[in-house]
Design brief:
single chain, 339 residues, alpha/beta, Rossmann fold, 4-stranded parallel β-sheet, 46% helix, SIS_dom_sf
């Protein structure tokens, strides 16, 4: 097993330099926002609904947009993970077709259907066939840098969408919240980067807790819901391990029952409760009750609390910790996290 505090050994195994890329997240956020600020937007009239179509990290970016906008705008945001578009998509729908590589089959198909419905379209990609089609069709493209793995491009996919909505007047002033988020991420980076030893590094400690166990991430409706899904994804892709996610209060009617029985299988599951200060009071009560209920049967559980003073800072504090923990877990397992 690798020593996570052996920086040279970590660098040797991390051949795609994911930790280096992750360490640049605050600056990547600034660049992604500036990219969309400078974009020449197409003429967009009244919008009755917004659809983000994509898969993987592109869809999760859409989930975050849906959650963030849910209490801020009256226009619904829907995430489409399919080859086809919902029937309601029409000429007053704003569609973000997002695919970091630009070659995702389902997104290409959905893009064509959105065009056929005369929806307002904006493409977000680093290149590929989606960019080629959009350029040919004279559709606005937010061209992302193409030097990173898609799994680490969540901020690059999410922030331009947010900026477009802000520029269209659907969201109120956002620059202060973006600056606050970037500042907070810089603080978190100093706590989680590879040079910080395991006994002082929360992400390394979490990776150690998850080692040789089956991770289960439970959030609640809102930003921790998105974070739970995101954590599952980064474990799957980087550590090449099974992981599962769900959200309160819904999971209390199903998944918790699976950890009530006494058998060896349950003792392999380690539950991470992703928590936020703004979780509904009933969710907070349910969480404490569930922790007591599964204590005898699961391998263990721990809380991971969001931090920060704004919604974006709190959300990205969870994403950042999860990304670091997922990469550290891959290294503990002897896997190159970028392969």
């Amino acid at each position: 097993m690798i020593n996570l505090d052996d920086v040279q050994a970590v660098q040797n195994l991390d051949t795609k330099e994911l930790l280096s890329t992750l360490g640049q997240l605050p600056e990547q956020c600034e660049a992604a926002w500036c990219l969309a600020e400078q974009l020449e937007l197409p003429k967009i009239g009244a919008v009755s609904n917004i659809v983000v179509t994509g898969l993987g990290v592109s869809a999760i970016s859409g989930d975050l947009l849906r959650v963030f906008c849910g209490s801020r705008i009256s226009v619904p945001v829907i995430v489409n993970r399919d080859y086809i578009m919902p029937e309601f998509v029409s000429a007053d729908t704003l569609v973000f077709a997002a695919a970091y590589s630009g070659n995702t089959e389902a997104t290409l198909s959905a893009y064509e259907e959105a065009r056929s419905k005369n929806a307002y379209l904006i493409v977000i990609a680093s290149g590929g066939r989606l960019t080629e089609k959009a350029v040919s069709d004279r559709i606005t493209v937010i061209k992302l840098p193409d030097h990173m793995l898609p799994r680490l491009a969540m901020a690059q996919l999410f922030l331009p969408m947010l900026c477009v909505l802000y520029r269209l007047g659907l969201l109120e002033e956002m620059t202060g919240e973006i600056a606050d988020m970037v500042s907070h991420l810089k603080i978190i980076r100093e706590e989680l980067k590879p040079e910080i030893p395991e006994n002082q590094n929360p992400a390394k400690q979490l990776a150690r807790l998850l080692y040789n166990r089956i991770p289960v991430f439970w959030g609640s409706a809102g930003i921790t819901e998105v974070a739970a899904y995101r954590w599952k994804e980064i474990i799957n892709e980087s550590a090449k391990l099974p992981a599962f996610w769900n959200m309160l209060p819904d999971l209390d009617f199903s998944e918790t029952l699976a950890l009530k029985s006494h058998c060896d299988l349950q003792r392999q599951f380690f539950v991470v409760f992703l928590r936020d200060a703004y979780d509904h009071p009933m969710v907070q009560r349910r969480t404490e009750a569930i922790k007591e209920m599964i204590a005898e049967n699961a391998a263990g559980s721990t809380d991971l609390n969001s931090s920060g003073s704004t919604t974006l800072a709190r959300a990205f504090s969870l994403f950042y910790t999860g990304d670091y923990a997922g990469i550290y877990l891959a290294l503990l397992c002897g896997s190159d996290p970028g392969c």
